[in-house]
Amino acid sequence: MFHKSRECHSHTHTPTERSVCVSEGKSLKDEDVLQHLPVGTTATFYFRDLGAQISWVTVFLTEYTGPLVIYLMFYFRVPFIYAPKYDFTTSKHWVVHLACMCHSFHYVKRLLETLFVHRFSHGTMPLRNIFKNCTYYWGFAAWMAYYINHPLYTPPIYGEQQIRLALIVFLFCQIGNFSIHIALRNLRPPGSKTRKIPYPTKNPFTWIFLLVSCPNYTYELGSWLGFTLMTQCLPVAFFTLVGFIQMTVWAKGKHRSYLKEFRDYPPLRSPILPFVL
């Protein structure tokens, strides 16, 4: 069985990895066995330096902890963010407090899922990804939080009705997202990298699998649309749009992978939005 060879450079103390290839193309998987490879009695192996690597769990925990802490700093109006007279004051608008609870809930949920739900098919990713991901999540969290918690923030134009509807959408999609993550987790036994076609379960939130390949992204989009409606804040809307574009790219890639791997893949499914996209 082949595994990536790991080296550690003394000047950085950062693990690096090398992938193994039987040709100058796609790397072998960790679980590939020599006897099962499409080679003859002799073969040439190529080693590709993957550079400094970091675990997926570490990246997820770092990129999700940042927004949680950063948002709370703006919510509590710590010094040097707004004018000194607003230090450690609280907003008079209840939607600001509700938004903080929803934002915090979202990232606490992500942290707990990283620790106890997700099963990663790859152990590591390039070290540079942590800087890119953290810049994205931390930067947007600061931008959103600055305006939502600003002393001059004004509530949504349609008041309580708009906020309550947005809260329902947000919570519905958060539950749906969690349900999909559980369903995907149950497809893969512990320690296995087996891939199966995901199907709806008895949980009604998973029935969207009938129409969508990546409903976790569909629900994630719905959550941020709800948060956008709740706060009526332009930076949140922009974050939702950017996230939607990125999740669409991921969903299309996953959808193509399913179609390529499974001949009996359900033909009615779309990548992220039923019948649309």
Essential attributes:
endoplasmic reticulum; 4-stranded antiparallel sheet; alpha+beta; TECR-like_N; 3-oxo-5_a-steroid_4-DH_C; 277 residues; transmembrane helix
Globular, elongated, flat, extended or rod-shaped: what is the shape?
globular
Structural class: alpha+beta
Q: Tell me the span between the first and last alpha carbons.
A: 40 Å
H-E order: EEEHHEHHHH
Helix content: 40-55%
Number of distinct beta strands? 4
Strand count, sense and barrel status of the largest sheet are: 4 strands, antiparallel
Kindly provide the radius of gyration, computed on alpha-carbon positions and rounded to a whole number of angstroms. Answer: 22 Å
Overall pLDDT metric: 86
Number of helices: 6
Q: Indicate the low-confidence ranges by residue numbers.
A: 1-13
Strand order of the largest sheet: 1-2-3-4
Measured by DSSP, the beta-strand proportion falls in 5-15%
Main location: endoplasmic reticulum
Transmembrane segments: 54-76, 135-153, 165-184, 205-227, 233-251
Subcellular location: Endoplasmic reticulum; Membrane
GO cellular component, one term: endoplasmic reticulum
